[in-house]
Structures are given as C-alpha cells and as structure tokens.
Amino acid sequence: MATVAAHMADATEKRNQIWAFVVTGILILISMLYYKANPYYIYLVVYIWFGFAYGLMLQYGRFCFASASRDLFAAGVPRMAVGILLGLIFFSLVAAILTARNMTTFHPGPIGVHEVIGGIIFGVGMVLAGGCASGSLYKIGEGNGTSMLAIIGISFGQAIFADIGGVFNKFLPQSWIDSASSQTFIPKEKITAWFDYFLVGDVFHKPMTTLDKMGLVSGLHGIIKYLLSDAVINTIIPSLLLIIIIYAFYIRKGFIKKWVKKGGSTGLGAELSGVWSMITASKRTSLMGVLIGITAGLHIFVLKGMQIKFGVSNFGNILTRMGHTADVSIHGTVFDPGYWYITTQEAQFGAWVLEKFGWNMHDNVFFGVNNGIPEPWRNPALWMSVGIIFGAMAMALLNKEFKFKLPKGELIAWGLFGGLFMGLGARIALGCNIGAFFIRVAGGDPGGWLFGVGMVMGAFAGVKFFNWWSERKMAKEMASF
Amino acid sequence: MAMKFEKTGDGKYMLDVCGYVCPHPQIYCKKSLEKMKEGEVLEMVFDNPSSAETIVQMLDQAGHELLEKKQEGGKIVFRIQKA
After folding, report:
1. Assembly ipTM
2. In order along chain B (83 residues), what is the average pLDDT of each group of 10 residues?
3. Across the interface, do B3 and A477 touch by the CB < 8 Å criterion?
4. Record: contact A70-B32, CB cut-off 8 A
C-alpha cells in the first residue's frame, strides 16, 4: 500500500515538473515568435523575462507586501517586513550606482498627502484581498481564484476611476479646476474626468525630487554622492531603524527570555543575535528579498540599455516606428515604466476591455495623454505581469504547491472589493506597493515612504476588521462545545 | 464555504480552512490556539502555501510545537501542540 502511495506521489511530482517546463517553454516560444516578428520586440521580451524572474522569486519567498504589515499586526510575524526592508537596502545600492552612471530609467513621483491617502485605501484593499498588487499576481500563478478576482478589481476599478466624470466633477475643489484651466501643456478636451482635474490641477504641481538633489550632499560628486543620499540616507538608515523597531516590539522579549534560559548573558551581543535570528527566521523570504532587490536594479539597467540601443525613451516610440499609432497616447507614448511596476498596465487592460464594449477610454489624461491603450499583446508592462504569473506557476508546480482554487462564499466579496480598493488607492497615489513604494524609496525618492506609511495604516485597519470577523465566526463554531 | 473548528477527542481539535487564502488560515490558527489549553493538540488542514511560512514562524515565536507537517495532494496538514 505504501509502495502504491509512493509511486503515485512520484508520478504527481513528475507531472508537475513536466507542467513547469511546459509553462516555461510557452514563454520561450512566445519570446522567439516576437523576435521573429520584429527584433524591436526584444524590448518587450525583456519585460517578459524580468516578470518571470520576479514570479519565481515572489512565489518561492512567499513575498507579499500585504503580509508584511498584516502578519506583523495579526500574528506578530515579521518575516515579510524584514524581507522587504532587506530588498530595499540591496535595491537602493544598485539603483544609486546606476543613477551615478546615468544608466537609470527611474524618475521620482509627486510628493504629497495624496500618497498617504492612496496608501491607506490600498492598504485596506490588500488585506481584504489577501495579497498586494504583486502578491495577487504571484498567487494567481499558484491557482488562487480569489487573487484573480482581486486583479480584475484592480484592473477595472482603476480604469473606471481614471475616466469617470459627470456628477463626480461637482465635488472638485475650485482650485483644481482653475489650475487645470490655466495650464497649457495638456489639451483642454482631454481634461474630462475627476481624476484628470486631480492630476492636472493638483498632483502635477507637487514637487518631485530625489534626495541627491535636495542639497544635503551638494559638496559630493560621483557614485559616493548617490550612495550616501539616495541609498544610505533615504533607504538604508530608515530600513535598519525599522528592523530594530520591529525587533524591539515583536521579537526582543521572547528572544531574550530564551537566550537567558540557555545561559546567555544580556547585552549588545544578545541583541545583535536577536536581530540576526529575526532576519534568518525565514531564510527563503529574506534571501528572496535580497535577490528581488538586486534583480529590480538589474531590470532598470537592462531596460536603460535597450533604450540606448534603440535610441528611444519610451516603447511608444518603437510602436510608432512599427506603425502601431493607435496604441500610443497623443504624446506618442505608452506606459513603459522602465522598471518593475504592477498597476497601470492592469488599468490599461481594463480600459482595453471596456473600449471593446463601446466605452471611450481615450478622452482623458491618464490613458489619452499619458499611457495610451496598446493592444494587450503589444503592451510591454502587461507582459511583465503575465511573466510574473507564469514564473510563479512554474515555481509552484516544481514545489507541488499549485492547486486551482475557485473563490467561494465570502472570498468572492473580499477579492473583488479588495481589488477595487487597491485600484482606487493605486490611482490616487500614482502607484502600488511596487511603483509607489518599493521603487520610489530605493530610487532615493523620500515620497515613497509616505505611501508606505499609508499602506501600513490601511493594513492595520484591515487586520482589525478581520480580527473582529474571524472572532465572530469562531464563536459560532464553538457554540456546540 | 465555511471554516471548521471541531473538538475531535479529549484534548484534540481539528481546524479545516481549505479554500481560504491569506490572512484567514494564520488568523484562524492563532485564534484556535488561543481557545485551547496547554498540551492540547490541533490538527490544522489548509491549502494556501503562503500561509505555511507565516504559521511556522508564528508557532516558533509563541513556543508551540509543530509535531508534524505533511502535504497531501495540495493540502497541507500541521499537527500543533499548544505550549
């Protein structure tokens, strides 16, 4: 009997391995077909394979930004918060070197209270949905149907929010309307939605900067200038402080108790051992944090190299050269962040679908002026998202962790509403846990921390809600004994 | 779909949260252990791999013992003794 069970387990493992190779093989085939169709598409293929690499690492490390604050508040587990902070530290070092060498595609975002507000809404959404924007993608690769609903919510929530006006425009502050009317850089006929006034009348006027330009290190030059400002001051010192704070609040008491019980003496040595034990408690998450940080830096480097090779600053230039002029915005651009990003490409997909149903999604600033709505198969950032799903699927299959789970009952509501909240938050903050936080902080933009603060606050509220909800359900279950 | 938390014997409990995704398995695991007495054993069945990493660390920090962990066709089974 035991032999039969072992044989069946072997067969399942082998079948999973074959499927992992099939998934990878499909992406290889797609990449070759694109290159054969036009060598320009190598630019898009780069996005596919960086997405695939992120997917492998996210799934292996169970790397989800929702888990960072949620598991800390709900279960006192810091593994993911530590993993993200390690990722930020390593990413910032690579990013600073690239900035110094003028090999970066990074650009800072507007700094303002909108990031905190967007972060709060996003934070609530990611706890409800059970995963952040990147986490939901990798969980689709594990077969998780709730995460699929979350991504649907993110896609359509953003697309609709970016285009909707009408009655909502009655709630616009007069200052935004005045400011949007007096500017000359965006055609007036494109400023139609509430979100357009928010962008053109308010957010576009906010300061955008990185720490290296803020005068703190004006006497320094070269790599040391960027390493000290963008990496050390903006990212590494705050990250290390957060690691120490998390250790002090969640780990220290239990660790020191065990340490003393084993005969160790208290002091700095014990504290450092405690911090180290926290970092290594989940080796796979911490290791993937480091690797994801380095990979995100390499991603910037390779895409900058592509832009130099083709003499472009945006994939929209390439699409125009190939004659796909309907794909691009009125400025000839499409959404091409030049680095790891999640939400805007999903908004484009949502807009593309809505246009098929007759909804004009080009009469606004977000799609019509800035990002365009390329056909999904010519959308480089969307291919990155597909790459993440495929990478996570390959890793889940290899680890026997792939299981298709249809969302049922309450999870349908949590997935969809969580996704909608994430989409709304991401638009207000102009990015998600990756684009508005991870990339911005590591790139030296202090505004990224504002989104992080909001995201943690939102996650705290989400955890409070779920604690109440689960307590209620537990009480029902326990009524019989 | 519903979670199941049942008393299966003297000092033995079963928590089934199959189908649930993050953060439900880890929250229900924590809350189930809170309801139990020291030395009692919880058998937990779930199918969300991302929760496993968090639950293992949560048990370690709280001093609960993970007596057994096994994988059965996409389902993960943890046997946990409350400290």
Report:
1. 0.85
2. 87 93 91 94 93 92 93 89 94
3. yes
4. no
